[in-house]
Write a structure and sequence with these properties.
By secondary structure, this protein is α/β, with parallel strands linked by helices. Helices cover 43% and strands 15% of the residues. It has one domain: Alpha-Beta Barrel (TIM Barrel). Helix 1 packs across helix 11.
Amino acid sequence: MRRLLVAGNWKMHGSRAENAALLDAFLRAEPPAGDAEVLVCPPFVYLHELARQLRENDVALGAQDVCAEPVGAHTGEVSAAMLRDVGCTYVIVGHSERRALYGEDDQLVARKFVAAQRERLVPILCVGETLDERESGRTAEVVLRQLDAVLELAGVEGFRDAVLAYEPVWAIGTGKNATSAQAQEVHALLRARIAAKDANMAACLRILYGGSVKAANAAELFAMPDVDGGLVGGASLNGEEFRRICGAAGKQET
Ligand code: 13P
């Protein structure tokens, strides 16, 4: 059985005061998530403080990005060792906003994945197609190309301690989520790619869905056999809403 994971990606939102209020609303009811594992990914500058605030609460901490290099002259970058040092256990790599706005290609994303694992961080590898790519029938080609670049560098062994996230670009921040059938189709495709190399690994791999997840659609998405949780953006900025999404995950078993 795969324990579901719900990750809140705060993107570039928050302040120390807002974060405290958000956590307060989220943690108010116990237990927040039943059996699901919960993770929050705030901006870098808040990681250290949040690590201390979350210590007692069984909520894990992740970063939104990591440098592919371990140390050195890389102004503005943050290494995997630094993330580990301040209490992270997860890191998102290859988010579509990093790919589209900051020019990260498949090879750089693969190097970040490996850099994270070298420091025993669990990478959450994001893949997903644009609307144009979906409408021209290229969804499978795009997500498998993104996955293959990491398989090539990290090998299938790299997926023993990793998480995949399918985030269709057209569903991110638009209020228009993929249907549960659309999500299931791509998740099954991704799992089959890993299964072709190692069936046991594929069976254990958690594949999250991201893109306009909210309390109203979470249970239906999480009920799909290959959907093992969610990567939640906007709705994770509302403590009450995020708690309800985690609650929906806590009721599922896959
Ligand atoms: P939204 O939930 O705001 O659509 O964002 C999804 C996302 O990009 C999470 O990483």
